[in-house]
Amino acid sequence: MDINKIMEILPHRYPFLLVDKIIELVPGEKAVGIKNLTINEPFFAGHFPGRPIMPGVLMIESMAQVGACALLGQEKYQDKLAFLAGVDNMRFKRLAVPGDRLVITSNVVRVKGNFGKFSAQIKIDDELICQGDLMFGMEKSN
Description:
Belongs to the thioester dehydratase family. FabZ subfamily. This protein is an alpha+beta fold.
């Protein structure tokens, strides 16, 4: 799934679209996405001057966006927006910096009504840098 298809599914736009490409997709089950970090990312200017680091909350958001691609790519959810409702068991093991290529995997654990859960992780060069569970709610888009 290229960036144009991602933007058909997600409402996010620059600077808050945090996935560049989906390289694996099993609709309703799993998505694997890529985020290439460059020094031009707007958050690096202030986080932190002289030592640019991707904020952990934006790593969480990137995992949620990849999960939303797995879920909202299904026809039955095409009229829905997904919202982050909770984060559990999130652990960060390494920093993400300019030049890194994040490989983001989000698995749909369950969907019940308008709520559900993803299990997600990010790797850089096959090294696990963070993982945790994300809860989401969905509602009809306008």
